[in-house]
Amino acid sequence: MSAAVIDGKAFAAGLRVRVAEYAATFEQSAGRKAGLAVVLVGEDPASQVYVASKGKATLECGMASFEYKLPDDTAQDDLIALVDQLNADPMVDGILVQLPLPRHLDEQAVVERIDPAKDVDGLTPVSTGRLALGLPGLVPCTPLGSLMLLKDRLGDLSGLDAVVIGRSILVGKPMAQLLLAQSCTVTIAHSRTKNLADVVRRADIVVAAVGRPEMVKGDWLKPGATVIDVGINRLPPTNDKPKGRLVGDVDFASAAAVAGAITPVPGGVGPMTIAVLLRNTLVAAHRNAGVPLADGAL
Ligand code: GUN
Asked: What domains does the chain contain, in order, with CATH numbers?
């Protein structure tokens, strides 16, 4: 292995310490804690784990956490009414509706209902539009966390060739916008891309967010490339690993032999997502309360 392993866990821990410091000074200035509301509909086990760890992390950095657990058969109108209630609640700075929602619910209508000032997931049309326009706003957590790791590793990204594999609303599209804003030359590749390996081989920066276990191989990479692996896939159980091994979208062993730097799975991008959610909540809190926050402070 020649690649440096990018320690997302350590970077996220540092960001959480900074968030906790700013959360304390926010509380002094605003006379209240910054608050994050997380809404979970139904019993999806993975979502339950994510929501519990978001709540715990929110409290740990000195912010208020409001958790709403609704039954699987919640009606669209009732969920919209809860979003309206949270939009109007002055103690709530950020609203996150955990996705995916049960199939009978209209996800887009629910997300669009969130006040953009509280859209800490960066998924509303206003947030998405502001990102595309290059205006300040709230940006989805996983791509922003990935960008922080890239800038920490590489410094100035301008002029670099970046390939984003995946075009999801949550990761691929906002990631491409963020890299473009850093003056990268950006290619968005996806399941219909021809000669994907050749496209990836041009890249100084590869962001893999496709949800296909170990798809990107070492011989697809330009030597020295920086690889951000957003995938979290559980392989089928084996005797060794009865729960199934967690792997990314990149074949770590072969990629690490060629790349200059690479994020591991777990311990790479994953821990950044919650840290950035806390960061976004605190940024929203400052704006909502009219408390100034220096540019780039967090
Ligand atoms: N489900 C998986 N990732 C996310 C995320 O970043 N935000 C929301 N709301 N739901 C998710």
From this structure: 30-116 (3.40.50.10860), 141-271 (3.40.50.720)
